[in-house]
């Protein structure tokens, strides 16, 4: 029997079907071991020796692999064809060797697509493990570990509220923060444009003023309303005739097939997918045999695939859409060993796959790959200049017409922030024509700051800078979200206060290690390792000899000294010069105190030097001198019953209202959804009156209370909660409505297991358990009676297929045992496994169950 190891059960099932009865295919469910989340897992003093630990949730799978390996005549490692796939194969081999279960013959095979032809061809061409790729994996993993587990403790001790730092993560965060600073420091500039609405032969068009009083007009030339009105009057008074018609042919070539990076960018732009969601769906399409491997830097396609694409084009379109020669694209990847074929369909005769998000992403991949082999689009760009009788003023109209669509008939690449491409059509005109002038407008504009990064544009920027690898971008961006360093609004990244503070700290004390050139240079060195041009331990040694002393130096400094340095470093942002020339650090409350950056248990904030006499504070993220600056306490008015002032204040946790002083003072947070959008005296009185008793429940006789909590407005009765939709509802909800809402909340609770399913999808294709689609408290989910898996927001429950549901359950089941492992740490059986691992020479030093708690403190490394 020959044993084949792959990553996923879906892949295992497909491949075993192709190979026949002599082969047994098992899945490792991804990586089987990693560096323990503790100090000492990488030892720089011992040649960067690494102590690996098996994942606690992989024990059952590792035992199955080891048992099968003991009776196998040959081990075939068939994991993915990249650095991570090579690493998984290496880990499997090392664990089996330590368990003395490694067959005498071990081969490595790779295939770019899970089709029968590709798999059988790969099996006929086995090779040994690629030591250079393994060394590159070890170097990258050690680098990320050393940065994360050396730098993160410095952050925890010197910068309250900071969570982690990482080699690529911190540089990606710096890009987001720097863009935020650009936007805040941006000063809008006024300018005006003058345009005329014209008509020729019954067809309207717009012409812009490009020359006025003999002078060329640029975007910012007309900066005042008076000049704009004067220019408008001159255009209105002039009679314009066509002076010149210029037509230029244009050719647009199709874009190359997708790489990992361009797929993530285009899926974000056109489908609204996050990078992580794109990669999850692409992984499933790959495992289903629908597309080629989705982690690639290459843009080239296999010759047989090009032929199949050309055949499909010829069948779909007429001969003009097929270029005479096949198109060849060259990869820009620096490391040829990791530059695989582009992402493409495995069959160009298959234009649809699956449903929902799977179908949408496949359609994008299919069209992009097919379009890459189609003819160029031919366009015609027309420019018409019209001058007035004096020859002093010129109007210009531009337009574009598609002569032959070529690849545009199938696919057009999206853009992140595109301007008008003048694609409008113009009427046919000749020199001497005098189009009718219908209306002249003068419009005011203001220059705009650079746009915040979207996932697509941030991935693109990281790739341009040579930072990270396309296959890691999804996890890198996810870490930034999970750490609350950034937030996403309208598909754009906004830097949170914690992210800005961490970036400032790293820029001030570790500037070299968050510089773009240094990080990109490290990527080049890692590529050199995987290409056999550098030795991995030497690269690590060169990094470590400077990095370790720097972290030790910062660790010795007092937190107060760190805060003082950051106060100076951030002064231009926190305390910019004021328009009236007054001291930007002057306290707006007491007048004679000086504002400065302070560190507290929950992070940084701005406070007055006269504390505790003056208790003025403002949030760290409020730059001084900006519209969002806290102007100090604001008296809303007097309470109608007590006569006391109701004061609006701003604290480190946001704005709040206060009535009274000291321990007797009443305070309340200001919700964001006030109907007027602003806090009024009436609303201040209402908020300070909370909690509000709605009345006594008609069945229990216990009070029903409405209030605002950590998660928003709610109802409370007898220890049970019901959600309210808005702050206004707290004061409007009556007894009948409250009773109904509490009853509905109780029915949605976890004990309502007797509910009918929304749909019975069928039997799980691998376990044969019945899969049902259910509606839960937090949305739709699927269950096989043993495992529940929540549907991602991007998955339409009405279009969910059986296979998609099964894959969600498989993924959830693979992740779930980690929690159980924690509970099983105490039994003696777990401890009995420890000496066995030592005897076999494995590097596992702890029971796997202890790993789970450590992960909570683990520093992010990418």
TrEMBL record:
Task: Extract the ranges annotated as region (Interaction with DNA).
Answer: 164-169
User: Per the record, which residues fall in region Disordered?
Assistant: 415-453, 622-648, 813-862
Which organism is this entry from? Sphingobium cupriresistens LL01
Where in the sequence is the active site? Answer: 293 (o-(5'-phospho-dna)-tyrosine intermediate)
**Oligomeric form and interacting partners:** Monomer.
Domain Toprim: residue ranges:
1-114
> What are the Basic and acidic residues biased-composition ranges?
430-442
Q: Gene3D superfamilies per the record?
A: 3.40.50.140, Bacterial Topoisomerase I, domain 1, Topoisomerase I, domain 2, Topoisomerase I, domain 3, Topoisomerase I, domain 4
The UniProt keyword set, sorted, is: DNA-binding, Isomerase, Magnesium, Metal-binding, Topoisomerase, Zinc, Zinc-finger
Instruction: Give the signal peptide, or none.
Output: none
InterPro entries, per this entry? Topo_IA, Topo_IA_2, Topo_IA_AS, Topo_IA_cen, Topo_IA_cen_sub1, Topo_IA_cen_sub2, Topo_IA_cen_sub3, Topo_IA_core_domain
Its biological purpose = Releases the supercoiling and torsional tension of DNA, which is introduced during the DNA replication and transcription, by transiently cleaving and rejoining one strand of the DNA duplex. Introduces a single-strand break via transesterification at a target site in duplex DNA. The scissile phosphodiester is attacked by the catalytic tyrosine of the enzyme, resulting in the formation of a DNA-(5'-phosphotyrosyl)-enzyme intermediate and the expulsion of a 3'-OH DNA strand. The free DNA strand then undergoes passage around the unbroken strand, thus removing DNA supercoils.
The name of this protein is DNA topoisomerase 1
Residues in domain Topo IA-type catalytic?
Answer: 130-551
NCBIfam families reported in the protein's UniProt record: topA_bact (TIGR01051)
Compositionally biased residues, Basic residues: 819-836, 847-862
Family assignment from sequence similarity = Belongs to the type IA topoisomerase family.
Annotated SMART domains: TOP1Ac, TOP1Bc, TOPRIM
The yes or no answer to whether the keyword Zinc is present is yes
Q: What is the lineage of its organism?
A: Bacteria, Pseudomonadati, Pseudomonadota, Alphaproteobacteria, Sphingomonadales
- EC number(s) on file: 5.6.2.1
Q: Quote the Pfam families the UniProt record gives.
A: Topoisom_bac (PF01131), Toprim (PF01751), Toprim_C_rpt (PF13368), Zn_ribbon_Top1 (PF01396)
Domain of life where this protein originates: Bacteria
Q: Which SUPFAM superfamilies match?
A: Prokaryotic type I DNA topoisomerase (SSF56712), Zinc beta-ribbon (SSF57783)
Asked whether the keyword Zinc-finger is assigned, the reply is yes
